[in-house]
Amino acid sequence: MSKQYVESEERALADRLVNYSDAIVALCFISSSGFGLAVADPDIRETLVEAAWQLLCANVVLGVVFSILLIVLRRWEQNLRSESQLSALGVRYSRNLYIARHVVIWVAVGQTVAMVTALIG
Questions:
Q1: Can you tell me the distance from the alpha carbon of 106 to that of 33, in angstroms, rounded to the nearest whole number?
Q2: pLDDT value at position 45?
Q3: Which residues of 27-49 are buried (b: 16+ CB within 10 A; e: fewer)?
């Protein structure tokens, strides 16, 4: 195999890892939004009150798992891109997007925690 082919495959795999990271963030946000819809329904709300503490713990643990997955995917991406030279602007944007992904996850987790604590009230 030629070196150019290997580099293009590594770049494609790194891009796929970025897509996986975006999918994790979307999954976290959608699950938080779905929980918000469940809280809005009075029948479901009564059932959720009974399991509020379990929901709180599970949501925080899920946020930790998502963050760990983001960290692992980011390291793999950086390893795959180690030979390619990014501009300073590209490195800064990549780092800012990585931080933004974590922010979105923890805002969604915080939103769900706030909804659960409002349920417990």
A1: 13
A2: 81
A3: ebeebbeebeeebeeeeeeeebe
